[in-house]
Automatic annotation (TrEMBL):
PANTHER family: ACETATE COA-TRANSFERASE SUBUNIT ALPHA (PTHR13707:SF60), KETOACID-COENZYME A TRANSFERASE (PTHR13707)
Family: Belongs to the 3-oxoacid CoA-transferase subunit A family.
Record-linked NCBIfam families: pcaI_scoA_fam (TIGR02429)
SUPFAM superfamilies per UniProt: NagB/RpiA/CoA transferase-like
Stretches for region Disordered: 241-260
Protein name, entry field: CoA transferase subunit A
Matching SMART domains: CoA_trans
Taxonomic lineage from the root: Bacteria, Bacillati, Actinomycetota, Actinomycetes, Kitasatosporales
Keyword Transferase: yes
Record key words, sorted: Transferase
Biological source species: Streptomyces thermoviolaceus subsp. thermoviolaceus
Keyword Transferase: yes
Any Pfam family the entry gives: CoA_trans
InterPro entries reported in the protein's UniProt record: 3-oxoacid_CoA-transf_A (IPR012792), CoA_trans_fam_I (IPR004165), CoA_transf_BS (IPR004163), NagB/RpiA_transferase-like (IPR037171)
Domain of life where this protein originates: Bacteria
Length: 260
């Protein structure tokens, strides 16, 4: 089955207001920027987003966030996104913060058909006991707080029950993909993209390099095409447009030697 869609706009044309989205990416790595921009241009709003973070440097999900298109975020990291923090504290945005490993497993479990699982992460904290602020009232008070979760003991160790995550759509970015939807991810972009893809009912992948079926060694496939419904091939310019969050420049070795 050829799953290639000609444009990103066509690929996201049926994403409605209020949809839930699992979005890949780890920091600025592996973020499906082209698909996110296509959603922005459509004017879709009221979205519930599940992602490790909510964009940075005015890219990725930060584009939708700044435009007020996101109603709820399920994630692990606010980081240096000041607008994310402002909306959260002002009561404009509902936020469910989850331990990073738990978020990854909730997405994977959703894709694997596992409804829930037990984990030791969060036991003895508000993650398990409830009371984490999901939404503030804008005046410093808590309007909506997380509920308590079931805790059970296995072999003398306490574990908290976590629900799997399934979403209406998933948006991911891969380094390589074929027309059947088999995907290969590059380095840290593999952290969350395969898991987000598994959790989506309809998964849309933007790929930096589109190849024909059979050109990817089966052993090299990170995510099989059974989890992917649509593939968008990026232009060379789109594929090369990658931002660096924090640029670090080291002193040349020759200069360090002379300084001594």
């Amino acid at each position: 089955m050829d799953k290639v869609v000609p444009t990103a706009a066509e690929a996201v044309a049926d994403v409605p207001d209020g949809a839930s989205l699992a979005v890949g990416g780890f920091g600025l790595s592996g973020v499906p920027n082209v698909l996110i921009q296509a959603l922005y241009e459509r004017g879709v709003g009221g979205l519930s987003v599940v992602s490790n973070n909510c964009g940075a440097m005015e890219s990725g999900l930060a584009v939708l966030l700044a435009a007020g298109r996101i109603a709820r975020v399920t994630g692990s990291y606010i980081g240096a996104n000041k607008e994310f923090a402002r909306q959260y504290l002002a009561g404009e945005l509902e936020v469910e913060l989850i331990p990073q490993g738990t978020l990854a497993e909730r997405l994977r479990a959703g894709g694997a058909g596992i409804p829930a699982f037990y984990t030791p992460a969060g036991v003895g904290t508000q993650v398990a006991e409830g009371g984490l602020p999901w939404r503030y009232d804008g005046n410093g008070g808590v309007a909506v707080a997380s509920p308590p979760k079931e805790v059970r003991v296995f072999d003398g160790v306490e574990y908290v029950l976590e629900r799997a995550i399934r979403t209406d759509f998933a948006l991911v970015r891969a380094a390589k993909g074929d027309r059947h939807g088999n995907l290969v991810f590059n380095k840290s972009s593999r952290n969350f993209n395969p898991l987000a893809a598994m959790a989506g009912t309809v998964t849309i992948a933007e790929v930096e390099e589109l190849v024909e079926p059979g050109e990817i060694d089966p052993d090299a496939v990170h995510l099989p095409g059974v989890f992917v419904q649509r593939v968008v091939a990026l232009t060379p310019e789109q594929a090369a447009d990658k931002k660096i969050e924090k640029r670090t420049v080291s002193t040349p070795a020759a200069h360090r030697t002379e300084s001594h």
